[in-house]
Amino acid sequence: MTLVTPRRAVLAAPALLMALTKSPSTALARAAEDGLAGVAKKRGITYGAALLAENLADENYKRALDREAALLMPIWEGKWGAIEPQEAVLNTGPLKQIIDWGAAEGKAVRGHTLIWHESLPEWVTKGLKGGRNAGISIMASHMDRVLGFTKPFIRDWDVVNEPIADPPGSDTPQSGPGDLRRTPWLEAMGPDYIQQAFIMARQRDATLRLTLNEYGIEEDTPAAEEKRRRLLSLVRELVMKSTPIDAVGIQAHLQLSNPFRPEPLQRFISALQGTGLQVLVTELDIRETWNAPQDIAARDALVAERAYAFASTAVEAGVKTFLTWGISDRYTWLNDTPGVAMPSGRKHRGLPLGEDLSRKPMWQALARAFSGGS
Ligand code: G3I
């Protein structure tokens, strides 16, 4: 598949859009009754979406999310800053709201995320300055409290999030040393904080699917290739040391400013699977370029083309759990995060449903990818 540069894609956009939406195939027409989860399920794929509990107050959004997703993931409510903002004081209400709604609608919930360098309360970052033993104690206590609470409800957790340093050439390069991101956990406990986290999670719940989650490993750039190399090296080392790890999550916060080809991603997924681990897609959304076309149809076609190219590659490589980081442009970090949001008030159109909750060409593209291209 040749590289599709934005300019060539814009020229191709109208034709592509017509193909996608002029006369949806009978399979897509049938899919209209199903949400994305119904379409995905026909090929043994679980499709879900991340959400904020507070957005469940929006009845139309809730109805759309219910129709489309079979799996839920808390954007904020399971993170340290949300669930244990003060030491030993658990704030489980918002997460339980997602769990309860999911249970009422027959949806599973993925946990996100136990050990990360962001959204850490000050009591944790201060405590970690106490060194390795302090780190072990803080990590173990958090796992006792959180996994103790979620054990009856959540079978699947992002245990360690974003442990790899961003290489030179990436948006946010980190200076070394080595391949690991310099986080409070690395400073306190050394590189084996990652293995310790997985061991502690397994000790607390023998049947959890334990995932290492990472971004910036999807696209056809030198930085992504180097980050894939770094992550694969870490995963192979963890597996070699018999670490209780079950899966790798590819976040897939894709950027149209970066080129994409299926082959590097396919090779990477295959190499990860070769270590015996499952590979999930955990946070797909698509960031447009700031000089995106004015024409909405052209923009949507570019997003849909990247969504199909990525999702079809992942699905054909055997990915069976596939989440988007939200379901609608109405609620997305893409449009409220400085440096990510488009200037001049335009909003990214990087999720399957529009702000009006209508299905966009990205929805069709994912449905087509889940349906094997039909
Ligand atoms: O909702 C609370 C509010 O009650 C509280 O008063 C306020 C105090 O700061 O925080 C509010 O929570 C915010 C939360 O988003 C929900 O809106 C946090 O401040 C804010 O930091 C948090 O940002 C999230 C960010 O992760 C950090 O946790 C973004 O929404 C979320 O999209 C982003 O998601 C990450 C994934 O976890 C990992 N992969 C990358 C992805 C994008 O950065």
Write the layout of secondary structure elements.
Blueprint: H1 6-21, H2 26-31, H3 36-41, E1 46-51, H4 59-68, E2 71-74, H5 80-83, H6 93-104, E3 108-109, E4 111-115, H7 122-127, H8 132-150, E5 156-161, H9 184-189, H10 193-204, E6 209-214, H11 222-240, E7 247-250, E8 253-255, H12 262-274, E9 278-287, H13 296-316, E10 321-324, H14 361-370
Parallel strand pairs: 1-2, 1-10, 2-3, 4-5, 5-6, 6-7, 7-9, 8-9, 9-10
Features:
globular; alpha/beta; 374 residues; binds ligand G3I; 10 strands; 13% strand; disordered N terminus
Please give the number of β-strands.
Answer: 10
Instruction: List the ligand species.
Output: ligand G3I
| Overall 3D form | globular
End-to-end distance: 18 Å
Unreliable residue stretches: 1-24
Q: Write down the overall mean pLDDT.
A: 92
Helical fraction equals 40-55%
Indicate the radius of gyration in whole angstroms.
Answer: 20 Å
* Series of secondary-structure elements, N-terminal to C-terminal: HHHEHEHHEEHHEHHEHEEHEHEH
Beta-strand share of residues: 5-15%
The main β sheet shows up as: 10 strands, parallel
* Structural class computed from helices and strand pairing: alpha/beta
Helix tally equals: 14
